[in-house]
Each structure stands twice: as structure tokens, then as C-alpha cells.
Amino acid sequence: MKEGCQMAESSLVNKLFTVNSLNKLVFEHDTRTFSQAIQEIGGAMVGQTNLDAIRHLYAYMSKKHRNEYFYKNALLNKILLGRHSMNTTSALRELPVAGNILDFLIINGVGQVYEIKTELDNLKRLRQQVSTYYQAFSFCNVVTDESHLAEVQKILDFPQVGIILLTKRNTLHVVRNSEMYNEGLKHETLFKLLRKPEFERVLLRCCGQLPQTSQGRYYRACLAQFKGLDILEAQGAVLRELKQRAAENKKYAEPFARVPVELMELVYFSGYRQADFAELEDFLVQQVGEA
Question: CA-to-CA distance for 240 and 107, rounded, in angstroms?
Fold first, then answer.
């Protein structure tokens, strides 16, 4: 019974800490999932604010159910915001790379890949995933917990992969620093990261012109032209475009700085406008259950 109850609570936490759920909660005033999570996990919270409730639910997650959101939020808070600056550094998440989905990417001069393996994940595809990411990026890290650490070290027996441990105290401990590795880079993988306006900007900037061909042959002609670039020049151009794509996430740095740490990752990837931050702040100071 106790295990079933914890599974239900974990499911509620998974459902609540998503961009879609937060938007429904703040902008549509749909409190169903939030209220259920408070009832199941938070207990009596009469007189407390919505922010108090979110912090309580996040604390539950930090102790009982460190899911992928918890890891991504830790990376955003402790690396992007803790070590770098929003003025110089950008982040992307869930980026498709050659049939895989890259969990988290931080761009600050170079692109640092962070593949997340929580205590809830298996490691079957880890080596293949990392090998794929090296087709586009020169620095890769795996972020995991203590239960997976020994197996991750065994699987990743090539020394250039960084290994980062999310400790029981919820700090990030670098077990092994990532090292530059360029031998796996592939033009086609890099090119496929870009949208049409992005690869056209790259070709105009690096080659001075776009291919003159039929619409049906245009994409392949652009790829062929891209393949003529030095691989590191091509990678640098792609990183520039990806960083520009992510720039919308940091448009309003001043109100973003007031976002609670528990919600940083959700808000960063939501493309908030100035008015959206005001609505979020209004919601957070309301008492639980207040209309």
C-alpha cells in the first residue's frame, strides 16, 4: 500500500512540474493537479501561499523522486546561473540529434552536452547516445546519481566524457571533467540541427551565397555546400545559430532573477513576456485555494 501511494505521489509531481501544467496553473487558473498534489503530499496548508506549497512539493521531489526535471533544474541553477551569466550563456533542452534527444545543452563559447541518467533510468543506450552527441559537439557530460555511478564509469571507459554526480545533498560533484573530442564530428549531423533560416544564414555568412537550384534539390545542395566548410568552422557556425535560437529564453533577465529556484527551468524554457512574469508573481503570493 505504501509503495502504491508513493507511486501515485511521484506521478503527481511528474505531472505538475512541466511547462504545460505551470502555464495552466498560472494563466488558466486550472488548479486540479496542483490541488491534488497538495492534498496527497502537502497536507494541511491553510494560510500558506502557493509559493510555500510549490517549495514543499519540490522538497518532496528532492528527497523521494529526483526525476529528470529535478536534474535539469539543478543544471540550470548551478551551472548556467551559478557559474555563468545569462548575458553570455544560453541553454537548450530536448534537442534532436541523429535520432536521439539530447537532454540539456549549455552554450558558452563551446557547447557542453549534459546527458541525464537519473536513478529512475536504465543505462542501456548510454554509450550509443554519447557517441551520437560527439557527431555535433566536442564536450559531453553524463549527469547521474550514486546508484549508477560505478556502472556509468564502466560504460564510459573513454576518458574524454565528463561525469557529474548529483549527490544526496543535491549538489553537483564533478567526478571527471569533460575533455575536447573532435574526431566524431560530422557535417550532416551538424547541418540537421539547423532550421532553414538558420542554415541559410550560415551559408551566406560563411560562403557568401546560397545554391542556385530547383526547390526539390535545394536542401541537398545546401548540405553539399555546408560540407565544404572546415568541420570546426561548421560547428562554430551551428553553435552561433543555436545560441541565437535560445536567446528568447533570456529576454527578460531582471524579472527572471526573481523566479523561485524551484521553477527556474520551467520559466526559462517558457518564453515568458514581461506581463507573464507579473502573473506568475501574483499567483505565487496568493494563499493556497484562493480564487
Answer: 9
Q: Which residue matches cell numbers 562554430?
A: 236
Q: 181 near 134, Cβ under 8 Å?
A: yes
**Distance (Å, whole) CA 227 – CA 240:** 17
Phi, psi of 205 (to 5 degrees): -75, -40
Q: Which amino acid is at 201?
A: R
Instruction: Write out pLDDT tens, residues 48-67.
Output: 899 999 999 999 999 988 99
Closest CA to 117 of 166, 158, 160: 166
Contacts of 49 (CB under 8 A, 6+ apart): 284, 285, 286, 287, 288
* pLDDT tens digits, one per residue of 154-205: 999 889 999 999 999 999 999 999 999 999 999 999 999 999 999 999 999 9
| Beta-carbon contacts of residue 163 (< 8 Å; ≥ 6 apart) | 141, 142, 144, 149, 152, 153, 156, 174, 175, 176
Contact predicate 72/116, CB 8 Å:
yes
Q: pTM for this one?
A: 0.91
